[in-house]
């Protein structure tokens, strides 16, 4: 739930479907904050991530971050001039003439690349990568928008996230930020993520806000969220100002890193500022750091961007990793420094050539050895079995059934 600044905080609205959870709405009176209050509120969070120091190394110039969300208000003063509006992939879900709310998407965009306004950009919202460009793709509706029921129930809108990922890749995105998710994998989204990574695009997604659910509390492990839990995606959990796991944040072995997600401020449409909790803002912070890395090292492979972020975390768990916070809380300066060391890594020649797969060639015997007592044939049986296992796993993911009665539950997290 987003609440107008400086009112009492609640969780970012979690659900975009009938089966997802959401905090009850609060009845609040409009109370717009002064722009200098906003800057005073956001700077401590950025300082906790070492972002102001990182600006001496990179500010996001030359990088495009695709924000796949509920839409971005390109006229918001703290984002003006930085936003390219892509297609509205939800078009037709709401009544003709209905104005998109764009609250959640604008909030996330401002955390990633807000540049402030006023003299010297000293007022309002400043994000992690203030010189980055933003590509806004509307792929979800907010729960209280007209057409929400149509959007969640109609099969024709089932592929908006996958379509948005592919559009972002084909239109120059360096980083894709996904502050959303669902509780089961779909083939189209899995393939779209693979498409993005294969074309050198970094994908960052929210781990989800189901950490306080009854099942999670009983078993200590929340269900996986997708696209966050697909291979190659940086899945982001939320921590509080002290770096402790936020109770609502998902705990599972898909979590890669964590970032602040409690009492986070961001810009909203029509000049407002809003605050809230969730893995959504945590994801936006990490997307911003990925943009800084890509700005300093254009074209750095997604795996190396991930490695730089993971290898440089602070508040690392005692054993190096746990399911609540992953490898720890991100640090912008340390991530850029780690990226400097990785930038010279030679990626060409590693693995198979593009377009080749291990199973492309038929399995042949690799040796025939004669020994006393008869023939011993050494075949590439182990390889064949391994390939069969991988193919089976891929097939299972492609055909993974939903739980009985489970509906499409895309959520903004």
The SSE string, one letter per element, is EHHEEHEEEHHEEHEHEEEEHHHEEHE
Helix content: 25-40%
Strand content: 15-25%
The H-level CATH homologous superfamily, spelled out, is Peptidase S8/S53 domain
Describe this structure in words.
It is built from eleven helices and 16 strands. The chain has a seven-stranded parallel sheet with strand order 3-6-2-7-9-10-11, with helices on both faces. It has a three-stranded antiparallel sheet with strand order 1-13-12. Strands 4-5 form a two-stranded antiparallel ribbon. By secondary structure, it is of the alpha/beta class. The protein has helices spanning about 35-50, 50-55, 105-115, 150-155, 160-170, 185-200, 215-220, 280-295, 300-310, 330-340, 380-400; strands spanning about 5, 65-70, 85-90, 115, 125, 135-140, 175-180, 180, 200-205, 235-240, 255-260, 265, 275, 365-370, 375-380, 410. α5 runs parallel beside α6 (about 185-200) and α8 (about 280-295) crosses α10. β4 (about 115) and β5 (about 125) form a beta hairpin. The protein has a single domain (about 5-350, about 395-410), classed as Rossmann fold (3-Layer(aba) Sandwich). The protein is globular. The longest helix has 18 residues, at about 280-295. Mean pLDDT is about 80; it is low at about 5-30 and about 365-410. The termini are close together.
